[in-house]
Amino acid sequence: MIGNEIIHRRNIILFSLIFAFFTIQVTINMVIEGFVSVFPPAFLFITVGILLLMMILKKVNPRVSMYVMIFCTYIYFYFLLTDSPYLVNYLFMWLGLPLSAIYQSYRVVLLAFTGSMIINYYSFFYLHEEIFPNVVKGDFVFLVLFGVFSAAFLLTFIHMTLRLWKETKEANDKLQVIAYHDPLTGAANRILLKKKFDQLKESKVDSIALLFMDMNKFKYINDTYGHDVGDQLLKKVVSRLKGELRESDLLCRLGGDEFVILLANIDLKEFEGITERIQSSMNQPLSINNYTIQVSASIGSSFTTEVSRVDLDTLIKEADERMYREKRKGTRGQAL
């Protein structure tokens, strides 16, 4: 479904086109036939146009404004043909149908089609002598077919356009996943980590914290059970870690068995609590291919409230050094 912001922009485009047509039509009539040619309803439509413009500029329910504009368009053509029943005005009426396709909405096109058919019927049978003096009434069916085929073409065009847009969006989403995520575990990669960090700095968060985690004896697990088991273990580790994090936190796999967790708007006490839960979670064994594997991890962390001064590489370096300090001790703890 098309969002309100897109509908709002298209409301502005359609209103501009209708206003331009209305201005040109009134100006030509005044030049050729004088001021009296400006039929009284023109002043009514100027008032309605001002109200509609206010609705558009104030963004008062863009979807309602869209339907009101389509409805007013055909009301305008009704009065225009009633006062000036000329073939050129009748032909201009048909422009409402393709213009309605600007919204890429089936309902709007069908509404415009209904309006076109009503005005078409009114013009042919009630203004026949003025607009179609040399056309037999049996030819009305061809005008109906013209409207039907035009609407069918527009509906088909909208269907194909929306389908292409959906396929393009899906392809773009897949590319986004490939570009910003680790293909094995689905965790974020370095690119997304840097992008997320820059966004946090720009939004001026109160604090930024980072955890650097390295799996203990992961090479031994790979050598003992095979790389397939090692890959499955990494996937389960990511799943387990995500279960301990907040929705706003970002889990990133730097490579191999190294992970980084980026957190923001967190106080030191809460940060220590999350770190302890992660450490406890990582000490629980994992079951893979009928093997029960005891896992553990060394964790280092960095925390700062001086967000404007810090950079990502510095945070990672500090947390990395603290993590290796723990690993050299041979412990399964964390350094804060």
Tell me about this structure.
- This protein has helices at 4-33, 41-57, 62-83, 87-93, 96-100, 106-126, 128-131, 140-180, 190-202, 218-225, 227-242, 268-282, 312-329, and strands spanning 208-215, 250-255, 258-264, 286-288, 291-293, 297-304, 334-335.
- The protein is an alpha+beta fold and 336 residues long.
- The chain has two domains: 4-175, no CATH class; 190-335, Reverse transcriptase/Diguanylate cyclase domain (Alpha-Beta Plaits, 2-Layer Sandwich).
- It is elongated, with a radius of gyration of 33 Å.
- 24% of the residues are buried.
Keywords:
single chain; 336 residues; alpha+beta; Alpha-Beta Plaits; 2 domains; 7 strands; elongated; disordered C terminus
SSE topology:
Blueprint (H helix, E strand, L loop, with lengths): L3 H30 L7 H17 L4 H22 L3 H7 L2 H5 L5 H21 L1 H4 L8 H41 L9 H13 L5 E8 L2 H8 L1 H16 L7 E6 L2 E7 L3 H15 L3 E3 L2 E3 L3 E8 L7 H18 L4 E2 L1
Q: What is the strand tally?
A: 7
Shape: elongated
Mean pLDDT, all residues: 88
Task: Give the total of domains.
Answer: 2
How much helicity do the residues have?
55-70%
Oligomer: single chain
Radius of gyration: 33 Å
The stretches of 5 or more residues where confidence is low (pLDDT under 50) are 331-336
* Proportion of beta-strand residues: 5-15%
Total of DSSP H or I helical runs spanning 4+ residues: 13
Which strand order does the major sheet show?
Answer: 2-3-1-6-7
- CA-CA gap between termini: 48 Å
Q: How is the main sheet built?
A: 5 strands, mixed
Structural class: alpha+beta
Helix-strand pattern: HHHHHHHHHEHHEEHEEEHE
